[in-house]
Amino acid sequence: MVSELKNSDSIEESKKIADEIAATYDINAVDLIESKYANFTPLIEETYSNILNYYASNFDKFDDNNRVLAFNFINKMLGNDRKSILTNEAIVNIYLSGLENSKSIYFNKELNKIIIDFENGNSDHSVLDKLFEKWSNDVSEFETISSIESEIILNSILYFEDYSSNYFLQFIVSEEKARDLVAHYGESVVDDLKIMMQNSSSETRYAAAEVLIKMIKLHPEAVESLTNALKDEDLSMIAENYPFYIRLGAKGSEDILLMTLRDNFNLTMGVDFLNCGNAYIEKGTIAIAKDNGYHVTSNVGINSGPIWGSGNGEEEIE
Fold first, then answer.
1. Rounded to whole angstroms, how far apart are CA atoms 137 and 140?
2. Alpha carbon distances (Å) from 87 to 43, 45, 114, 189, 246
3. Which InterPro entries does this entry report, sorted A to Z (predicted)?
4. What is the DSSP annotation of 93-151?
5. Helices and strands (H and E) in the chain: how many
6. 316 in helix, strand or coil?
7. Between the CA of residue 315 and those of 206, 237, 247, 253, 306, what are the distances in Å?
8. pTM of the predicted protein model
9. Mind listing the pLDDT tens digit for each residue in 26-71?
């Protein structure tokens, strides 16, 4: 069957031959394919994609023994314990093809285990980058409507857990889609985001705050302690995480925020309050700053983060 691949003259025939190879569950076919067609890597990629799609589409019909055999074959094709003549990009494309053709949650989980090992053995993050690109494009295309494909890709990204969350956290300042993605992690990234809200960069502080705001809809339980702090008037909690409350912009929270500033005044917090886009808070902040010995001046500029409102000027405390 392997010998027939080169002579196939149609996509349908190539797929049929690949299906027949897959149905044998013979992992030796992998070595045979790569040795025979070493100079025709596109043919190898196409064949592996077809084989993986065969397993993905029929997995629910397999008995337990054939499921094990199928993943032995897949691991031989894509696993990190062997050297493939295919590029990382080709292997990732094969993997994505399998995910998109799968009808089984269990199959996806097992496939993700193999590809996680592959990713861990490579330093270029090719899997995560490709998954993120695919998910971002799907979300942009479907806007607020989640497609089945985008949900599958998202679940695969989340399956990488701490490894992927730490990777994508570094992009939340520069990429809106990264902020959208990280919000899906929920409780596992809340502490990291709280630390980022203490960063010296206002862009980092408000990017982290924005992710936590997005999380209110996706994982309300994960940010419950933050949202409850306003109702409980927990000034210590509010002070530690004030970018969240500025970004939240909750109606009626202005006086509590000003109380927090008065009791926990520092220069960074004062400047952020002064530039939050809420006139009432800005006026109160000027008074609090003066009480703390600072003189407030105004400079023309642009607010540096997605905060309460938008302004035409930027104020500083000297």
1. 5
2. 13, 10, 16, 32, 47
3. ARM-like (IPR011989), ARM-type_fold (IPR016024)
4. HHHHHHHHH---HHHHHHHHHHHHHHHHT-SS-HHHHHHHHHHHHHHHHHTTSPPHHHH
5. 18, 2
6. strand
7. 17, 26, 18, 22, 16
8. 0.84
9. 999 999 999 888 888 999 999 999 999 999 999 999 999 999 999 9
